Amino acid sequence: MLYFIIDILGIIAFAISGVLVAMDKRLDLFGIFIIAFVTSVGGGTLRDILIGNTPVTWMQEEIYMIVIAVTVLFAILFAKHLHHLRKTLLLFDSIGIGLFTLLGIEKGLTAELSPIMCIALGTITACFGGVIRDILCNEIPVIFRRKEIYATACILGGSSYFLLILLPFDGAYAYIASILIVIVARLLAVRFHLTLPNIYGTRENEA
Amino acid sequence: MLYFIIDILGIIAFAISGVLVAMDKRLDLFGIFIIAFVTSVGGGTLRDILIGNTPVTWMQEEIYMIVIAVTVLFAILFAKHLHHLRKTLLLFDSIGIGLFTLLGIEKGLTAELSPIMCIALGTITACFGGVIRDILCNEIPVIFRRKEIYATACILGGSSYFLLILLPFDGAYAYIASILIVIVARLLAVRFHLTLPNIYGTRENEA
Amino acid sequence: MLYFIIDILGIIAFAISGVLVAMDKRLDLFGIFIIAFVTSVGGGTLRDILIGNTPVTWMQEEIYMIVIAVTVLFAILFAKHLHHLRKTLLLFDSIGIGLFTLLGIEKGLTAELSPIMCIALGTITACFGGVIRDILCNEIPVIFRRKEIYATACILGGSSYFLLILLPFDGAYAYIASILIVIVARLLAVRFHLTLPNIYGTRENEA
């Protein structure tokens, strides 16, 4: 039940981020809904396709489509006020990528993939909805550009999981701790502007 | 046999629309063929991948590739005259999306998906070839922008199907009536410039 | 063993081409890695998804991810010197598309596809990693634009395979000869600037 609520919070945060990008591009209602939808479930869809888990998850659970549709309506109605929610949305989004990373890892384990591939699958689940959103909006994906770390937080949390399950505790603790590591890493990154090392030299910062 | 002819007409209309966009972007022969190909079969391919219906349909039926290749050759040779065919192409395209919507719904029913998901799958089948075409041509997909309704016609026809099969008639009538609803809705939309409601305020129209 | 070495050489060449494009777009370390990764394995991934060969190949063999990660590190460190390797990289890339074309054909035969579809699958394996790279970098795919032939070399080599296996020789000769045909066709194309016929008239050359 708790997982379900967290899952829905993540879906809502992702959908709102999709609405904001889509409205920025002046898309119509259908376009906004599709962008919100792929932002929310695109990462899990790509994960399902890569491992052959079909029909993909969102086709088997109408709740995702309903939650996203309702979120889109509210987000459009209150678009002007969404910037007041910036911090709340950051929190939801961080919770979302934390949960999605571990959900992806779980699916990878079920598909009998190696730890490295499970971490990759978790990162894809958490991050590639945003990648598809940006491609559909004709932008280079924002997580490929030098901003605060995002995918790296997922990789960090995913790696932690495979270390923590080696400890003599119940696996559920490792699961929850790893979700928290993703969330905290992401929040710290935004708070302290943590980025990956710049490989282009100093003048790049002026560009 | 009738379905087959309609299917081929739709494929031809979609392929021509792909050729026009690709030539506009000055792509070479290979690029034009690929764009025509994805415009025609991309929606069905995405549908097949999402439900795990692999190898995807076009790989099992060479007729699609042959029809598209011939269409591309003719479309390039007679490119200058294609604007005379504008109304014919609109008709073919409308017939195409009508049929493709119901084909997608049929596949969804076979995969035991719910009505909402079947409608989504039908809309993907009809509309996402054009989405992939636009992404490959580095444009924001045209059906996400405020033009005459397109995907909405598919959703309308798809929804009608699930209402009409509740009536005490043969299912085949519901199938054909729903195809016609998509076609008529699309043609009316173009004729009367029907769009989704504008959510951006009046000044937007000047942009 | 020889196949394996050739495969790795191809992966390295593709990964380096990804790094160069990604650095040109000023992506961060994560973005560079993802672009290198999709350039290398994206074609094979699309092939696997289209025929339902899941989990996709790179998820079952960690060697790809490791080779790509190491290549990315070296490519970034020695980015300034990579233009000295232009000819070596062209050779590796040509070897790579030759091998990938035939690997794709092999997978198509295993999936019991027709010769035309096998050739399509081989061409997708060899060429669509670059297509995904370009889409993620917000460019119209370079192989769709009028440059020296690339996909055409794969189609030529793939077609040769299905002619050569009709001859009374061992199939392995046809396999190797076809790889060589792709490589030689591509190298000749670059050397003599062979392109597909220009369909846009002479003034186009000035554009």
UniProtKB/TrEMBL annotation, chains A, B, C:
Annotated membrane-spanning segments are 6-23, 30-51, 63-82, 89-107, 113-136, 148-167, 173-194
Membrane topology value: Multi-pass membrane protein
In what residue span(s) does the Glycine transporter domain sit? 5-79, 91-164
Q: Name one Pfam family in it.
A: Gly_transporter
Q: Which UniProt keywords apply?
A: Cell membrane, Membrane, Transmembrane, Transmembrane helix
**Where in the cell does this protein reside?**
Cell membrane
**InterPro entries according to UniProt:** Gly_transporter
Q: Which family does it belong to?
A: Belongs to the UPF0126 family.
Protein name (database record): Trimeric intracellular cation channel family protein
Natural source organism? Euzebyella saccharophila
